[in-house]
Amino acid sequence: MKICFVLSAIEAEPVGTSVVLMRKAHERGHDLYIMGVGDFIFKQNTPMQLRCLLVNKKLTYKTVDDFWNQVQDQGGQKTVITSEDLDVLFLRNNPTEEAGHRQWAEHSGIAFARMLQQEGVLVLNDAFAMSHAYIDKLYFEELPSEIKPDSLITRNMDDLLEFWEKVGKRMVLKPLEGSGGQNIYLIGKDKKNLNQIFESLTSRGYVIAQEFLPGVSKGDVRVIVMNGKVLEENGEKAVIRRLNSDKDEFRSNLALGAKPKKTKYTKAIQHIVEVTAPKLIKDGLFFVGLDIVEDKLIEINVLSPGGLDYCERIGLPCFANSVIEAIERKIEYKKLYKNKLPNKVLATMD
């Protein structure tokens, strides 16, 4: 299998879920290509081109960090391939994390991926689904209200104050387009700094307000869903509790110092997955992260969900083997059905 991972930039990529998956693809003997989101090349009347790094199959390493250091050392050895040389394109860049000087990178990965998909490359997640779910907090609002906290999306302060009263004068404010736990605020009864927070958030776009869930003091749970099912390996499920040791910190993002812990797959979590899964499958979203507090889904991550890099340290499998095996099956289905299956269907075939 010839698989290409799209990152924001090879030289800046930290060791996380993408690197864990790339390492497993390499270990399984696949032709592993890696590219930055700025490495697409379009020429009229010719197959799409990609300037990629082909990872040396003879690399030897013991750890994922060692693997990635060796790959990054190869960084200047890129080659140009075309869509005809590729089986799979796995979009792993997160547009919402692009800095202001890289606005060009926010939509380009998905846009070029749509073109590659039309040229017959299997794109994961489905590029048209990614376009639809690009603002994942807005996509989140398409899910049934029964599994979500009460919420409001607006750019108007009066709307926010009315919502704040409705939910008992405790609400969480986030930018509609954001990730990694950045720029998230808890507004309590004193409305401390609300005007400044509102101005800061609306300078970036729309604001989403959610009712505050007291259960967040016990952390939230990241659930990795693949093909509409909880990712599973050796009888273990990819379910990770994220708990911040700082009692004054209500955010549970691992990037902000929260600690991962093994946790139970409860009936409430199972119910949320069962309600969410049919839509994920219909839309062609292969690899998704769900963030859950007790019996409520608080966020859905479709652009570049993470968490696999923490699994082994808490006694879980790394799960990467199951992900790469699933992609291998899709390529086999693609051949068996003689390329007649739509990408959206193939993306979530188990």
Essential attributes:
350 residues; alpha+beta; Rossmann fold; single chain; 30% helix; Dna Ligase, domain 1; D-amino Acid Aminotransferase, Chain A, domain 1; 10 helices; 7-stranded mixed β-sheet
Average pLDDT metric: 94
> Which class of secondary structure composition applies to the elements?
alpha+beta
CATH architecture of the largest domain: 3-Layer(aba) Sandwich
Main sheet record:
7 strands, mixed
Helix proportion range: 25-40%
Count of separate structural domains: 3
The CATH topology of the largest domain is: Rossmann fold
Count up the helices. Answer: 10
Principal-axes geometry comes out as: globular
String of helices and strands:
EHEEEHEEHEHHEHEEHEEEEEEEHEEHH
Distance between the termini: 17 Å
CATH class of the largest domain: Alpha Beta
Description of the structure:
The protein is of the alpha+beta class and 350 residues long. The chain folds into three domains: 123 residues, Rossmann fold (3-Layer(aba) Sandwich), CATH 3.40.50.20; 110 residues, ATP-grasp fold, B domain (D-amino Acid Aminotransferase, Chain A, domain 1); 63 residues, 2-Layer Sandwich (Dna Ligase, domain 1), CATH 3.30.1490. Helix content is 30%, strand content 24%. It has ten helices and 19 strands. The strands form four sheets. Strands 1, 2, 3, 4, 5, 6 and 7 form a seven-stranded mixed sheet that branches. Strands 12, 13, 16, 17, 18 and 19 form a six-stranded antiparallel sheet that branches. The protein has a four-stranded antiparallel sheet with strand order 8-11-9-10, covered by helices on one side. A hairpin with a 2-residue loop joins β12 and β13. α1 crosses α9. The longest helix is centred in the C-terminal third of the chain and has 17 residues. It is globular, with a radius of gyration of 20 Å.
